[in-house]
Write a structure and sequence with these properties.
Blueprint: H1 3-28, H2 37-45, H3 59-74, H4 79-92, H5 100-111, H6 116-122, H7 132-135, H8 138-143, H9 148-160, H10 166-184, H11 189-195, H12 200-209, H13 217-224, H14 232-245, H15 250-258, H16 264-279, H17 286-291
Helix pairs in contact: 1-3, 1-15, 1-16, 3-4, 4-5, 9-10, 10-11, 10-14, 10-16, 11-12, 12-14, 13-14, 14-15, 14-16, 15-16
The structure holds magnesium ion.
Length: 296
């Protein structure tokens, strides 16, 4: 395989990770921790840049980086290694906003990474159907842009380590497929629907594909969910709808996603990872990039 091809794969993954981290850090600004909901609503509507000098990224980016390290090492998802890297990232900084399930699971995986096989399916009696496997996966999809089926398969493998429920896995497949298609200039919601396993995530995406792009973003979030329930089927359809609405404009995609509020770091991480995979982060205001916590 020509080295230039591999370099292009890695460049796509890098663009996506940069977009994901920017979305994550930008989206996190709109939580109540930083400002009251009414003020956040007004500032998003006015497109006013968050005033904090440093925009820290959260668990979405921490887990995305762990996944990229495994892919850099092995060229594919090696699940035991991934379990260890997720646990190490968690242990390095537990205050990155991880959900309840990860606080239960990841300390156990630090001791015995291979135990994900028994522990992940036991989370929440049937495995997590949360959005955690989707929020971290766009750079994987970008990297495997040349083979969308392979991207889907690898997305499912990385999901299983923490999110064993079929809906948690389907959310990850949908986002990886969207990112792979975005790099190819072929991202449509209909194509993502066609490649997502049956279930509530695919149903939500099919509904998203019917929402016209001249619909206000907050209204689309009302129809599709905004991640407030932290489920994949409540998160992925809206995040991919905004990404599909603004495929060439990362800044516009992130503002539109923020209008949905809800689990806004994660919806913005997903939209940012997909749009960033195609266009990178160079189009956003330079001040945004200066404020975002570095990835090194
Ligand atoms: Mg987060």
């Amino acid at each position: 395989m020509a080295s230039t091809t591999v370099e292009a794969d890695l460049a796509a993954a890098h663009r996506s990770l940069e977009g994901l981290a920017l979305g994550d850090a930008f989206g996190e600004r709109w939580f109540r921790l930083f400002r009251e909901p009414r003020q956040a609503y007004n500032e998003v509507r006015a497109r006013r840049m968050p005033p904090e000098p440093v925009w820290n990224w959260t668990d979405d980016t921490a887990m995305a980086r762990a996944l990229q390290r495994v892919l850099d090492e092995h060229g594919e998802v090696e699940q035991d290694r991934l379990a260890l890297f997720f646990a190490l990232a968690f242990d390095a900084d537990r205050a990155r906003g991880y959900g309840h399930g990860m606080h239960m699971l990841l300390p156990e995986l630090l001791i015995s990474p291979g135990d994900w096989r028994t522990l992940a399916p036991q989370l929440f009696e049937g495995g997590s159907l949360g959005n955690g496997a989707a929020m971290r996966v766009a750079p994987l999809g970008a990297r495997f842009r040349r083979d969308v089926d392979h991207a889907a398969e690898q997305a499912a493998l990385q999901a299983e380590v923490t999110h064993a429920h079929p809906a948690g896995i389907a959310g990850a497949v949908a986002v990886a497929v969207a990112a792979a298609l975005a790099v190819r200039g072929a991202f449509t919601l209909d194509e993502v629907v066609a490649r997502t396993p049956a279930g509530p995530v695919r149903d939500g995406l099919a509904r998203a594909a019917e929402v016209p792009f001249d619909t206000e973003a907050w209204r689309a979030a009302d129809l599709l969910g905004n991640g407030q329930r932290i489920r994949a089927d409540d998160t992925v359809p809206f995040a991919l709808w905004t990404a599909a609405r603004h495929p060439d404009d990362l800044e516009a995609a992130l503002w539109a996603t923020a209008e949905g509020f809800g689990d806004v770091d994660t919806t913005c991480a997903i939209a940012g990872g997909v749009v960033g995979a195609a266009v990178g982060v160079d189009g956003v205001p330079a001040e945004w990039l200066r404020r975002r916590e570095p990835l090194n």
